[in-house]
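Usage

Read records sequentially. Each one opens with the input sequence:
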Amino acid sequence: MKKNLFTDLSIRKKLPLIVVATCLSALFLAGIAFLANQRRDTRAALVEHISTIAKVIASRSTAAIIFDDQKTAIENLAVLSLLPQIDEAGIFLEDETLFATYLKKGYQANWPQQISHTSSYAFNADILELYEPIELEGKQLGMVYIQTNLTQYTYKLLEQSGLAILITGITLFLVFLLSRESLNSISLPIAELAALTRHVAEKNDYTVRAPALPSRDEIGRLVDDFNNMLVQVEKRDFALQESKNRFRTLLDQAGDAFFLHDSEGRFVEVNERACDSLGYTREELLGMSVFDIDTDALKELHRETVWDTLVPGHPMTLYGTHLRKDGTTFPVEVRIVLVEEGKNRYMQGLARDISARQQAEEEIKRLNERFALAISAARLGVWDWDIPKNELVWDDGMYALYGVKKEDFAGAYEVWLQGLHPEDRSASDEMSRQARLGEREYDTEFRVVWPDGSIHYLKAYGQVVRDAQGNPLRMTGINYDITERKQAEDEVRILNDELEQRVVARTAELEQKNGDLERLNKLFVDRELRMVELKKRIKELEQPIGREESEVVK
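and closes with the structure output:
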């Protein structure tokens, strides 16, 4: 591996080097920016200056071109001799013919091959070439061409660069001298702290402390935090020992038997419950292995079937039989997990006697069988609906009540609702909704349509199970067939209807006969009244006749 000299330097040397390198980078970038800006500004000023001169010459050369006065044009260019940086200049006509020229003394002419007809300039190496049009009333008569040598500007820029390098060197030297002493206040405490850290790591001595610093900067706070860390480590060591003691106490008071054994199956730790359940002392168990107490564990297969399949942090549950010291056995449920301590690997197990649980499971099994028999005899169907997941679970009786096969039922609320008679779906859905909201009990009747088209009546009861906030979690209930009852009720209703019709007809007949009797009675009464009236009239007529007869006799 390639050695990094800077990495191996002490912090007392690194810090000054970092400061100097940082300052050097800053000064270098600042110098480059300054020189670049100086070069840009110098060139811009030069272009503006030469462009102004060219415009003056172009303005003064208009008449010379019109009157073909080369002498005047040459005199206009002669003023450029006052500027030593200008090597050559010329006036070109519109057809690019050279009309007048100016050459610096000792300079060999190097006229451009192609003339620009617009106001423009270009930097080529150490030369500035500038063009300025000569115009009269918007018509171009020619071009002024000026070539400027930039050598003196380049020398000036180099002088400035050298001055910047000198200033940078002096600045770096001063920075090094000033930072060397000031950085010792940082590097020395850190070096001492590093030495103390090595001592703590090698000796495990957490009682030492770093000398406190008077400053309250980051270094001072680092020293204080390091000392506080040592105090916390001491407290944690003490707390760890107390935790171990508490763990041992809790381990011995645990309701399950605790075992910890190595890869060979030898016990390295057990609790009191393990000793009590097996009838051994702790010392006896620590001299034994898992194969001495587990009748189902085979030593030659233990590593292959159990040990190599375990992953740290992923427990496994096994079932087996433990052998007591007196030779009796009992069933156990063992939850094992792989534990790693450095390079050592152990298997931790919690064994629970499940004798009572197995007996309870057997009793529950018998009760379930009786319940299933009762359900079957009563032809009931039991259902359970997980409301959040929308999972509807039926027993075999439900499939028989709905006339469907288990594989044809999707197990969702909507599928159940579609199996109802179309006229009963809305009311049944509303009943279910109200039951979930707690507005009423789920006690209803509805019709179902079997796949063969036949219609059956079912009675349904259900209860809603809710969480602590009252939200519905599931509904559980029963269904049973009431088709025969409904048919009997229909037959009774039909008989009642027929009886009512007969009663109505008989009542009408009696009412008719009663009317006839009333009419006969009325006729009879009227006749009797007329007879009484007639007799009364006859009697009244008989009285005068009698008086007349008596008078005649006298």
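Summary fields computed downstream for this record:
- Residues 12-158 form a domain with the Beta-Lactamase fold (CATH 3.30.450.20).
- The mean pLDDT is 81.
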